[in-house]
Amino acid sequence: MAETQTTKKGAKRVRQPVPARRSKPNRPAKPAPGPHASLSFLRVAPRKVRLVANEVRGMPVGDALAVLKFTPQAAAKHLSKLIRSAVANAEQKGGRVDVDALVVKTLTVDQGPKMRRFMPRAMGRAFRIEKKTSHVYVELGTAQ
Fold first, then answer.
1. pLDDT of res. 41
2. Per the domain annotation, does 19 fall within a domain?
3. What is the pTM (predicted TM-score) of this model?
4. Which range marks the domain in which residue 76 is found?
5. Which of 6, 58, 60, 130 could form a disulfide with 114 if both were Cys (CB 3.0 to 4.6 A apart)?
């Protein structure tokens, strides 16, 4: 589909076809996620949630819930509720799943949108206060 095109000096130039777009490299397909649950727009800063999340990541579900029950941070209550939701999803969708064999496979905490508020300060200034939110994702797997 090459076309010819003349220039001012009369020499003919052949237009090259546009190269096709490169396809994405062959990556292995992601495995289907196991039982999971997510919590969006949690009104606790992600840095504070990660402190609690690091304690229970990789633990069996029963142990993780026991640790969270006696953790004084506010995020512990929300994380335990999220893990219980993932266990309920495993029972509901997974059919016959041994709940005692489930472990917290992945537990990620990402930052959500910030709510911006302003506080009056001295000499007519205003300081911005950012109330941060978190997005939490938990996926359960079987102990290997």
1. 95
2. no
3. 0.75
4. 41-142
5. 130
